[in-house]
Amino acid sequence: MKDVPNTGQGCRNAPILKERGQREVFCGLTSIIWLHRKMQDAFFLVVGSRTCAHLLQSAAGVMIFAEPRFGTAILEETDLAGMADAQDELDREVGRLLERRGDIRQLFLVGSCPSEVIKLDLEKAAERLSARHGPHVRVINFSGSGIETTFTEGEDACLAAMVPGLPETQDRQLMLVGALPDVVQDQALDLLDRLGVGPVTVLPSARADDPVAVGPNAVFALTQPFLGDTHAALVRRGARHIAAPFPFGEQGTTAWLRAVADEFGVSDEKFAEVTDAPRARARRAVAQAAEALENRSVFFFPDSQLEIPLARFLTRECGMTAIEVGAPFIHKDLVGPDMDLMAEGPVFSEGQDVDLQLDRVHDAKPDLTVCGLGLANPLEAEGLTTKWAIELVFTPVHFYEQAGDLAGLFSRPLRRRDLLKLEAAE
């Protein structure tokens, strides 16, 4: 990696503490909140309970006069008790929905905890409904159940379910994989265009008829580190993955772009011409925001699967020391390049036994703890400074122009704690 030298031996082969105890997870249905904004002619129909509906409404902040592109087909007591044919009920609800919303081109049947508990076969339902309502509407199913999954796995399951239906192509092309905020995606596409990389497609695309295809001459670059199933599905279709650190911070973005540029034969001179200015802006922004992070320690609870790339960013670019980096899953084909750039030292843990991990964080007393909402308030009450992991998923943090904002998300809790201590001393 000519632009990002590795000053240590890296952590790819570091031992991993594997835990299989009680987990603190956030429901995978929440991924619908950002996915439905990306796919303009799609509708996400959760087959679940009123609890699922309340969760989505709360997470999205849906106003009463809005008509969002997601909803819940409520499983009533008769469905759960087997007194009604849930498949017939589902067919009827889908028919009503499509009759009312003629703009829908992709309909996602999203499994939930209740539908999985009663073994409702949504794959069979999707095939039946696709045959009935196609070709105008394609019906796809995936699971967003929170029983044993972390909340970002909902996106992974959704994109992986889309891959088998993508058209076949023999063309040489790059696919960007992962849902990004529109402003961030536009920045990425602009950088690639200026580098001369193309043609470029995006998964998920804005519309069902966008020219997204896959085949043996296609390569893909992931923008999110939680897309393990999608990665496997694309490889099965013959596409090849461009392994790279994820585009968080100046160094991560440069390494990601460099890997893509090398794949497409971009010269060093052209690469420097396109990236030098935004790299300099990103370095200045990170340096300013990271003043409060220098020589501070950080502890990651497993939550979003962003943990390893973010730990690389914080340790290499912000001067922090990582004590423990926990992730729900550690997929080295995806996060291995980030681990290569990390200095030896932190404990890597996969999965979770929340009681044991709480013991370790109490012993370590880190300056900053990155964790889920359910753990943040109790840890704050005990005097630990925390950062909500979920905010890192909903906030634009990728690529050069967001590098300073990313550092700021971590520095603000520490600045706030320092100010409170100062006020208390006065």
Automatic annotation (TrEMBL):
InterPro entries: LIPOR_BchN/ChlN, Nase/OxRdtase_comp1, Protochl_reductN
Enzyme class (EC, first level): oxidoreductase
Pathway(s) this gene product operates in, as recorded in its UniProt entry: Porphyrin-containing compound metabolism; bacteriochlorophyll biosynthesis (light-independent)
EC number assigned by the record: 1.3.7.7
Chain residues that bind [4Fe-4S] cluster: C27, C52, C113
Protein's job: Component of the dark-operative protochlorophyllide reductase (DPOR) that uses Mg-ATP and reduced ferredoxin to reduce ring D of protochlorophyllide (Pchlide) to form chlorophyllide a (Chlide). This reaction is light-independent. The NB-protein (BchN-BchB) is the catalytic component of the complex.
Name of the protein: Light-independent protochlorophyllide reductase subunit N
Provenance organism: Lutimaribacter saemankumensis
